[in-house]
Structure formats: C-alpha cells, structure tokens
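hey so i finally got around to running the thing on that chain from the lab meeting. sorry it took forever, my laptop kept dying and i had to restart like 3 times. anyway pasting the input first so we r on the same page abt which one it is
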Amino acid sequence: MENAFWVSFVALIFSTGCVAQYIVETLPGYPGKLPFKLETGYVSVGELEEVELFYYFIESERNPVRDPLLLWLTGGPGCSGFSGLAFEVGPLLYDYRAFNGSLPTFVDNPYSWTQIANMIFLDAPVGTGFSYSTIQKGWHSSDTLSAEAIYKFIRKWILKHPNFSNNPLYITGDSYSGVIVPMVSLEIAKGNRAKKYPMLNLQGYTLGNPVTDLHDDENSRVEYFYRVGLISTELYQSVKSSCQGEYISPDIHNAKCFDDIAQIAMCTIKVNDAQILEPKCSFASPKPHGLHWGRRFFDDLPIDIALATNKREENWCRNSHYVLSYIWANDQTVQQALHVRNGTIIDWKRCNKTLDYDSDVLSTVYCHRTLMAMGYRALIYSGDHDMLIPYTGTVYWIKTLNLTVSDAWRPWFVGGQIAGFTTKFSEAATIGDGLVFATVKGGGHTAPEYKPKECLEMADRWLSYYFL
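ok and heres what got predicted. didnt touch it at all, straight out
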C-alpha cells in the first residue's frame, strides 16, 4: 500500500503543471466547424521544464478508442509538425489554386492518416514551429537532447491523456527524423523494461526516406544516379574504380576520383533533389559541395516570388506551396485560434534552419538492430524518385542488420496497379513481426506528399498487421 501511494504521488507531481491543452473547433481558412477533433497545447520538458514543446493532436476519424496512436516527427531538423499535418498526412491541405494573396484557405485531404489513427504532430526540437524555451540556455539542442525531450514529452502527454494509454503506440516521421525516431523508440523500450511510469504501449515505428547513417546515405547517391540514368555506365564504372567506393571522403591526392565526382555533380546539379522528375525551383542555388547534402530541399520559395501573379503557374515548383504555411501561421488570428502563447514566436518558419543544434549522432543503425532484437515492428519506406536520401542507401543499412528475409522482393498493389516493391525481414532470435521495407513508386523525399493514396493504403495495411 505504501509503494502504491508513492507511485501515485510521483505520478501526480510528474503530471501537474506540465501540459496545457485546448480544443480547437474552427480555424481561419476553413469554412465552418472542423470535421475532426483537434487539440493543441504545450508540454513542458527539460531539467527545469524550461522547454515548451507545442503539439497538434487529432483524434482518429474511425475509432479513436481502438485505433493506434502515432507520434509524428517531421525532419529537418527544425521542420514543424504542422508541415507533416498540412503537406503530408494530416486532414487539411492548402488550396493553392484558390490562393489570391489573402489568408490561405484549406480543402479536405481525402488520404489523411487521421482516418485510421490518432496522431500527434510535434514541433521538436526546441525552436521548431511554435516550440520555445523560457530561458536562453534552453534554446540549445542536439540529436541526443531532442530524443530525450521527446521521450519526456510523450510520457507527460500520456499522463494527461490516460484514455490513450492502451492504444498501440508508434513513433513515426521521415527525412531527418530517421535519426530521432529510432532513438526515441529505443528510449521508450528501455524505459518500459525499467518499468518507468507511465508504461508506454510501444509497438514499433515507421520511417520514410530516413536519414540513418550520414556518410552511407550520401555515399549511396552515386549508385542511385546510375540506376535511374542520371550518369552514364562509363562514368559510373570509372568513379567506382577511381574512388574505390568512397565518394564522400576520398583520398585528397586522388585526382581522377575528384574529376569523376565533378562530372557527376555537373550531371545532377540541375536535378530536383527531392523528386527527380519535378522541376527544380529557379531560385535554388547549385549544390556547392559536390555530393554533400546541403539540405537545400528545405529552402522554401521566397514570398515575393510566390506572391507574384505573373506566370505563377508556369514557374511552379513544389516549394511554392510551402509559402502558404508562412502566411497562414504568422497571422495573429490563426495563432489565437491555435492558442499559441503571445510573443513566444515572432517569426514562424516551416523549417527553421537557424537552430542552435548539434548533430551529434552520425548513425542510428545500432538503434534499429537493438529494436529488432527486442521484437518491435518497423515499416521503412522510400519514395523511389528521391535522390536526397535514396532508397539505395536504405537498402544497404537494412542489409547490415543481418535479418532473415521472410518474404522476398515483390510488387505491392493499390487499385490493381503496382504501387512499389516490398520485402519483409525478421529477427531470427525473436518471434516479432520484424521489419518491412517498401518503395513507393514515383514518390519523392516526403513520399505521402507525392503519393498520398498509396501511402495511406500502405500505412493502413501495415498498422493492421497485413503485409503489403
């Protein structure tokens, strides 16, 4: 009885004054009442609870009591959870065609993942979206600190939402979240083993085009360029020989290798990194460092260009859509509707590239290996037209896990058409569901943004324990 008292007491202290939550029934730009339940709020984390992480929570439109709970982490680092909500898997999309320079409006997303799951879209790390710190020191973050903060976030969120404590929990995201998602998942798994309160019903995680090993992800681009016909067979064979498979940090005295890499850079410099078939934004600068990832995919179209009415359709590039989020989220009526704390964020950005942030984890392959051995599920998917984090690198690190192939490479279908290709792996030492890898045919770096119907079907099948 005494132990039970202290557990309850600690839980009370842990949860009190840490979470502020608000129900949002209407949003500027959407006509009438929202057709889904939206909650926004803050959760305090950090040693002194100085970091206020902002979130959007949307209940499943199907069955919130039984459907899984997904924590969505957008990449970057520094890209708001709202980017995932409004451009990838949430229930609202901007009506770009109707935009006339005033406050952007929304249309319903027929392929929202909130049709099949409860979803938390989180602004993390600190400095992302509407998340902020109450003290100067708290603005600093890193891969390690971010994972710790998100682990604290989900524990405190569950304490304030005990009705979702038994729902299957999945940590999800894409791009740079490939670093954070497996780290958070492993923190939860270790916490559950240590019986930390509250226990979280973690079942697994999903990742799209994930940054996993910074070196190997970039190094795999040369093979990808060859596979999709961006470089010739002769150049590919030459660079393999001259660089001996090392394209990111070759021997500085190897002139032939550097010449081959320069030729490859010239062949790919005008190709859209995020989706090789789409136009490259005219404002985007050429890649200055050969094959290195400069993260220019996250450079949104300048507002003055986006607002220009002349030839807007002719000069379209996908980044044009993202500017609408800046206009909308920086509007005071919008921030009031979302219950954003006044004066905490002066200039909202979809992706904040000025974070005080250290990328202190170079590879998360060990996290995947540990989580597989512990019996957790994983869905790893790759838009096959992304050359930023190409599927070739993802296939490579999955092979290093030394898992058993339980279902060999084959096509998967949506509406009678091939939606991509998939294979399933299992950990020989466990009876867990294992790891499913899938390509999304025609998908770009953020696959659900390019192929929403196929990605919804993929997620629904996998969450329902149905192999693609």
